[in-house]
Structures are given as C-alpha cells and as structure tokens.
Backbone:
C-alpha cells in the first residue's frame, strides 16, 4: 500500500495566492507501480489516515470503503515522472521549494553535496530545500543556510 505522502504538501500550496512553482516527485527504485499510483491519485484508506480530517474532507474524496482519491484540483497541480538524479534534469526552476526527501541517503557524501548544489541553483533566493529527517547535508553546504533539521534555505 502506497502512502499519499507526495500529496501531503498540495493542500498548503493551494491555500496561497502567491505565484508558486513547485514539483512533487516520487522515486521508484523497483518498478513504475508507485508512479502509476501517484498519477492516479487513488490510495487505500489507510494511506491517507494520517491526513487531518479537515484537510482530508477538503482535498480527498472517498472512492469506496477501501479507497480515497486526491481531489481533481490538487491532482491537476501535480506531475509525476521518473527522474535519475545523476542525469540531466528537465526542470529549470526557479522554485520556491524543493522537496527531496529520503532520496540522497542512497548516495555518498560527495554526490549528496553535488545534488544539493544543483537543487540550490534551482531555488529562488530564500527558497527552501527540504530533505528527509534521516538525511543531513552538514551545518552549512555552500550557498545553503541550515534552518532546522531537514530544512535549508538558499543564501
């Protein structure tokens, strides 16, 4: 059962009136099944159980007793595609926020720093890079300011 984590930020983005460029990504290391599920926006009820009830009522709808679907307005804001972080990236930015959670732990420190630099270059000044809580880029990667665990801003 996949979790609806990729859509967890979408309700907050839909509440802002500021121009907001962003991307939601899902890494699939074994198969494209997670991408297909993400694109459909349909998840098992237990996958959205952690979403607060008020947000769940607003941004999800029950398909049946076992499944919930992301609302069409949120699903329309998303794009899912397979991406090899070591290859050229199709996205150009600038972005206000980049979420790269629980991905860089699979790379050595040098590659992590190189990836952080590439993401930094896609952020607006003051833009945020959010990584997984099990990941660390150290206290001050070049051009990024440590804000709190898993959160860095572009200098």
Residues:
């Amino acid at each position: 059962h996949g979790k609806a984590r990729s859509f967890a930020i979408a309700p907050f983005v839909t509440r802002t009136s500021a121009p907001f460029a962003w991307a939601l990504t899902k890494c699939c290391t074994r198969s494209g099944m997670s991408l297909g599920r993400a694109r459909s926006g349909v998840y098992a009820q237990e996958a959205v159980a952690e979403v607060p009830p008020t947000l769940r009522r607003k941004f999800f709808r029950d398909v049946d007793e076992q499944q919930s679907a992301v609302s069409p307005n949120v699903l329309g804001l998303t794009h899912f595609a397979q991406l090899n972080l070591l290859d050229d990236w199709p996205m150009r930015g600038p972005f206000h926020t980049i979420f790269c959670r629980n991905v860089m732990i699979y790379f050595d420190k040098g590659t992590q720093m190189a990836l952080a630099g590439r993401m930094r270059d896609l952020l607006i000044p003051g833009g945020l890079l959010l990584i997984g809580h099990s990941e660390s880029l150290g206290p001050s990667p070049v051009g990024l300011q440590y804000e709190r665990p898993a959160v860095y801003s572009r200098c």
In short: The beta strands are 42-44, 60-62, 67-70, 95-100, 123-131, 144-148, 151-154. The longest strand covers residues 123-131. The helical segments are 10-13, 33-40, 53-59, 72-75, 109-122.
